[in-house]
């Protein structure tokens, strides 16, 4: 892959999603510094999926599609506010009309700031709306998979307010949809990203970036590609017997106590 981020040295091309239609929400981008949705969309397309790039910004959706095409893949730009049911339904139908099928959904959209109701409308209700709009198509797929994206802010205190609570709702949504849709053959799992270096997680400059790197057990920086490869596993056939799983992608950040990390964070 040529876009920036760890994993840039890996060859993301393959056939693990060949013949499938995948839709990734919040997959827009601007420039080469990719968020997790954009990286996931680029990787899925490189693995053979016709990939829907859904974003509230048409320019950002088009930019990711451009990256996909540069890699030789097929991306379909979709503009929708995922908090709006009609807009979501139209985007899903547009994707199915173009791709002919829908097998994989990644509910990646997330906003960290805003009024409580708006944060919930995007992060929690938005994921529900996309999954529910996709459901009639997913039931027809022999390889149906939904990958939700929560946050470690949902399971560890971070002072993130509505963001934390809305991401907790994404965990509960995962459990509920996995239960309800298991008999339909639809797997529903959830990724729980840690402090990745992405546009959302990059605030605070070089000092904050270094602190985030040291705040996990490996002491290495995570990027959008780390989330994308985990999403590929949950989307693809290798995880065929996994549903309802909550998978941290955080280099062990949530495995340590504050006291346990104190020495590592304060050493010069
Ligand atoms: N980066 C981190 O450190 C981190 C940590 C934990 C969880 N996450 C989660 O990962 C996901 C992606 O983070 P990122 O850093 O890649 O974000 P990002 O800002 O790069 O991408 C989010 C995208 O969502 C789009 N969007 C915003 N509101 C929308 C709406 N109403 N409808 C449709 N699209 C909308 C934006 O235009 C943007 O392109 C989020 O769910 C975030 O909560 C990130």
Helical stretch tally: 8
**Rg, please?**
17 Å
CATH architecture: 3-Layer(aba) Sandwich
Number of E-state strands:
9
What is the percentage of strand-forming residues?
A: 5-15%
Q: State the share of residues found in helices, binned by percent.
A: 40-55%
Indicate the low-confidence ranges by residue numbers.
Answer: 2-7
Shape: globular
User: What's the story with the biggest beta sheet?
Assistant: 7 strands, parallel
Structural class: alpha/beta
Total domains: 1
Family: Belongs to the short-chain dehydrogenases/reductases (SDR) family.
Keywords: Oxidoreductase
Protein name: SDR family oxidoreductase
GO molecular function: oxidoreductase activity
Please give a handful of descriptors for the protein shown.
binds nicotinamide-adenine-dinucleotide, 7-stranded parallel beta sheet, 42% helix, globular, oxidoreductase activity, 268 residues, Rossmann fold, alpha/beta, NAD(P)-bd_dom_sf, two-stranded parallel sheet
Describe what you observe in this structure:
With 268 residues, the protein is of the alpha/beta class. The chain has a single domain (21-266), classed as Rossmann fold, CATH 3.40.50.720. Helix content is 42%, strand content 15%. It is built from eight helices and nine strands. It has helices at 36-46, 58-70, 85-99, 116-138, 162-181, 205-214, 224-235, 258-266; strands at 21-25, 50-55, 75-79, 104-107, 145-149, 187-193, 196-197, 222-223, 246-249. The strands form two sheets. It has a seven-stranded parallel beta sheet, with helices on both faces. α4 (116-138) links the parallel β4 (104-107) and β5. α1 (36-46) crosses α7 (224-235). The longest helix has 23 residues, at 116-138. It is globular. 49% of the residues are buried.
């Amino acid at each position: 892959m040529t876009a920036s981020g760890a994993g840039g040295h890996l060859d993301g091309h393959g056939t693990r999603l060949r013949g499938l239609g995948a839709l990734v929400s919040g997959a827009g981008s601007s420039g080469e510094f990719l968020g997790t949705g954009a990286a996931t969309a680029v990787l899925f397309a490189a693995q053979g999926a016709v990939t829907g790039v859904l974003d509230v910004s048409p320019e950002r959706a088009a930019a990711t599609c451009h990256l996909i095409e540069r890699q030789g893949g097929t991306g379909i730009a979709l503009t929708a506010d995922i908090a709006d049911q009609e807009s979501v339904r139209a985007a899903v139908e547009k994707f199915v009309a173009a791709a002919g099928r829908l097998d994989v959904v990644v509910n990646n959209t997330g906003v960290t700031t805003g009024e409580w109701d708006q944060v919930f409308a995007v992060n929690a209700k938005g994921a529900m709306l996309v999954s529910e709009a996709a459901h009639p198509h997913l039931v027809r797929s022999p390889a149906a998979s939904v990958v939700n994206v929560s946050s470690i802010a949902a399971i560890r205190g971070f002072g993130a307010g509505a963001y934390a609570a809305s991401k907790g709702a994404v965990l509960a949504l995962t459990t509920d949809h996995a239960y309800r849709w298991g008999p339909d053959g639809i797997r529903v799992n959830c990724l729980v990203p840690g402090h990745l270096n992405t546009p959302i997680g990059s605030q605070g400059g070089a000092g904050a970036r270094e602190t985030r790197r040291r705040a996990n057990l490996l002491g290495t920086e995570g990027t959008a590609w780390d989330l994308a490869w985990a999403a590929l596993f949950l989307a693809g056939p290798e995880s065929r017997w996994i549903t309802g799983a909550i998978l941290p992608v955080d280099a062990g950040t949530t495995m340590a106590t504050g006291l346990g990390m104190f020495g590592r964070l304060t050493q010069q």
